[in-house]
Amino acid sequence: MTRFTLDDLAAIIKDRAAASADKSYTKSLIEAGPPRAAKKFGEEAVEVVIAALGADRAAVISETADLLYHLLVVLHLRDVSLQDVLEELERRTSRSGHEEKASRAH
After folding, report:
1. What is the pLDDT at residue 69?
2. Most exposed: 53, 83, 86, 105, by fewest CB within 10 Å?
3. Do 65 and 84 contact (CB within 8 A), yes or no?
4. Prediction pTM value
5. Long-range contacts made by residues 35-42, C-beta under 8 angstroms, separation at least 24?
6. d(CA 89, CA 95)
7. Tens of pLDDT along 61-86?
8. In the Cβ-directed half-sphere of 101, how many Cα atoms lie within 13 Å?
9. Could you tell me the residue ranges of all domains in the chain?
């Protein structure tokens, strides 16, 4: 079995951004712009929280998949790569969480 990655999903989103909106949900979401994509991301975040409060593991998986997809669409619209985010996470994890959080307070 091949391993599907978030990089794979980001590449699919980039490809579908060039498709027609009548054939691609991704394209229609992109055409609607950042406010619509961000709203969908927020809705999916709430659905993950609700699923996480329940006992249905499959629901958590499904809602998280939706969340990650919508996050990557938002990043695409703002020209932020997954690598940009990973580099920020790497920078933050080079010290304790308390130190990192205190550095952002200023």
Report:
1. 98
2. 105
3. no
4. 0.88
5. 37/70, 37/73, 37/74, 37/77, 38/74, 40/70, 40/73, 41/67, 41/70, 41/71, 41/73, 41/74
6. 11
7. 999 999 999 999 999 999 999 999 99
8. 3
9. 6-80
Structure tokens at 3: 């391993």
A 10 A CB-CB count for 35 gives: 9
Question: What digits encode the pLDDT tens for the residues 6-55?
Answer: 999 999 999 999 999 999 999 999 999 999 999 999 999 999 999 999 99
d(CA 60, CA 88): 26
Q: Domain 6-80 class?
A: mainly alpha
Do residues 45 and 67 make contact, with C-beta atoms less than 8 angstroms apart? yes
User: Residue-wise over 45-57: b if at least 16 C-beta within 10 A, else e?
Assistant: bebbeebeeeeee
pLDDT at 98 over 80: yes
> What's residue 97's pLDDT?
76
